[in-house]
Amino acid sequence: MRLVLTPGYLLVAAVAFFTCGAAGALAESYPTKAIRMLDGFPPGGGTDFLSRTIGQKITESWGQSVIIDNRPGASSNIGAEMAARAAPDGYTLFMGLTSVLAPSMTLYPKLPYNLLKDLAPVSQVASGVYVLLVSNSLSVKSVQELIVLAKSKPGQLNYASSGVGSPSHLAGELFNLRAGVSIVHLAYKGGAPAAAAIASGESQLTFVSVPAGMPLVKAGKAKAFAVTTPQRSRALPDVPTIAESGLPGFDITVNYGIFAPSGTPMAIITKLNREISAILKYPDVIERLAAFGLEAKGSTPQQFSDVVRQEVNLWAKVIKEAKIEVE
């Protein structure tokens, strides 16, 4: 049997060959100018810290500046939309917190961008935990005792959050659903007033990050009962997990990662991924992240994509079962 190559086939093959060659050459020379790293939160938070830490290392390695552009608002969705609408050329990246981005797909059905379609995962960069803090006003000493007390007093205990639809709100509702309890949600205007409510005994419990929660614990104003991840945190090795404290399978892992606009050439995403993976293995980077209560954690683009999809599905279920709505 003789294979006949038609002119049309040869044209398609030639286009594919030169397109792949052009993409490879583009990635080889990338970057040739400054890279903008969008961040949907104000300076000083976890995403800002990670953006500056990783951006500095990319600058040192590639000789091109990484400019951090904080665009806070709308649960980081303003920055995410800007990234989704940017040119897909590798010169605009976005540092995202998936525990905020993933619920937004259900909380805000009219978002002007789609997390799963308009942003391309580049790499996960870090993971963290939330800590279940309990006010000293409660005499319980463990998660199991807390659940027993909550079941004996349905609707009489409350938990503080930094706002409706916030990670601390969603964590509290997941705890309610998994433990079969009815702890009332009290929404405050930010993390600081929510923490103050725990310290004063106005609210009985909350879920917070390690940097936000440990000052209260060290000051003797609250107790760290458990962390929300499947394994204990390196930052708090003596604090058990919620899973081992009576709720097997309970898992809220705080995931941070870098995205690019959808359509960014895979050759550029691959080059970025390799560089970020190398950066996350630097001892000084690992130490800096650990001091912030985070664990350096890289991934392939596909692995990070899987993490995002899993969180979208998890929070969609929680939001619907708890009937959470934002105005």
Structure commentary:
By secondary structure, this protein is of the alpha/beta class. The chain folds into two domains: 10-126 and 255-321, D-Maltodextrin-Binding Protein, domain 2; 129-245, 3-Layer(aba) Sandwich (D-Maltodextrin-Binding Protein, domain 2). The chain is globular, with a radius of gyration of 22 Å. Strands 1, 2, 3, 4, 5, 6, 7, 8, 9 and 10 form a ten-stranded mixed β-sheet that branches. Helix content is 46%, strand content 19%. Helix 7 (167-179) crosses helix 12.
Summarize the structure.
This protein has helices spanning 7-29, 46-62, 77-85, 98-107, 115-118, 143-152, 167-179, 191-200, 210-218, 266-279, 283-291, 301-321, and strands at 35-39, 66-70, 92-97, 119-135, 158-161, 184-187, 205-209, 222-227, 253-261, 295-296. It has two domains: 10-126 and 255-321, Bordetella uptake gene, domain 1 (D-Maltodextrin-Binding Protein, domain 2, 3-Layer(aba) Sandwich), CATH 3.40.190; 129-245, D-Maltodextrin-Binding Protein, domain 2, CATH 3.40.190.10.
Overall form: globular
CATH class value of the largest domain: Alpha Beta
Number of domains: 2
Tally of individual helices = 12
State the order of secondary-structure elements, H for helix, E for strand: HEHEHEHHEHEHEHEHEEHHEH
Largest sheet: 10 strands, mixed
CATH superfamily of the largest domain: Bordetella uptake gene, domain 1
Q: Spans with pLDDT under 50 lasting ≥5 residues?
A: none
- Here the CATH topology of the largest domain equals D-Maltodextrin-Binding Protein, domain 2
* Beta strands, count: 10
Structural category:
alpha/beta
User: Mean pLDDT score, rounded?
Assistant: 92
Distance between the termini: 68 Å
- Helix content range: 40-55%
Rg for CA atoms: 22 Å
| Strand composition percent | 15-25%
CATH architecture of the largest domain: 3-Layer(aba) Sandwich
